[in-house]
């Protein structure tokens, strides 16, 4: 199993703790904003980590686009519900992306709370990513915004 150069024992332990603490949680993965794998919980194989990274990068990009188009602010969380599982994607204050997959019979409210709590406390084990200048200085020029 290969590990990211950024992954630390404390990050792996934190992800394992999240999966162990929340009934129904199966795997947890943390990515950089550009989709690089930073860490993963135990039992996440290389192929699964790569697939999750690709999937989450796309979800994250769609969520960011929705925030810009709807003038809704920065992306905080994306939740995907399938027939037998959920995928939670949340951004940390430092810009990293946390993803947790849980079984379909798990308590979604508990998971949403735990994901938000983890994302808020993750700075100790994660690097900080700066936002691109265009979002800091007022948005994207020429963008057409949808107003409900």
Helix content: 25-40%
CATH C-level class: Alpha Beta
Task: Enumerate how many helices there are, as a single number.
Answer: 4
- And the CATH topology? Beta-Lactamase
Known CATH architecture: 2-Layer Sandwich
Largest sheet: 5 strands, antiparallel
Counting structural domains, the number is 1
Average residue pLDDT? 79
Q: Using DSSP, what is the number of strands?
A: 5
Name of the CATH superfamily: Dynein light chain 2a, cytoplasmic
Query: Which residue ranges are poorly predicted, with pLDDT under 50 across at least 5 consecutive positions?
Result: 1-6
**Oligomeric state of the chains present here:** single chain
Order of neighbouring strands in the sheet with most strands: 2-1-5-4-3
Q: Tell me the overall shape.
A: globular
Query: Span between N and C termini?
Result: 48 Å
SSE order: HEEHEEEHH
Instruction: Look at the helices and sheets and give the structural class.
Output: alpha+beta
Radius of gyration: 16 Å
Strand content bin: 15-25%
């Amino acid at each position: 199993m290969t590990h990211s150069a950024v992954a630390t024992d404390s990050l792996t332990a934190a992800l394992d703790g999240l999966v162990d603490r929340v009934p129904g949680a199966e795997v947890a993965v943390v990515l950089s904003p550009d989709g690089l794998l930073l860490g993963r919980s135990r039992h996440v194989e290389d192929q699964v980590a790569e697939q999750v990274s690709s999937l989450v990068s796309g979800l994250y990009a769609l969520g960011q686009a929705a925030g810009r188009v709807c003038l809704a602010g920065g992306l905080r969380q994306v939740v995907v519900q399938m027939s037998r599982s959920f995928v939670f994607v949340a951004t940390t204050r430092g810009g990293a992306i946390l993803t947790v997959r849980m079984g379909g019979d798990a308590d979604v409210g508990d998971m949403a709370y735990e994901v938000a709590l983890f994302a808020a406390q993750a700075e100790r084990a994660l690097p900080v990513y700066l936002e691109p200048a265009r979002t800091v200085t007022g948005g994207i020029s020429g963008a057409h915004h949808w107003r409900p």
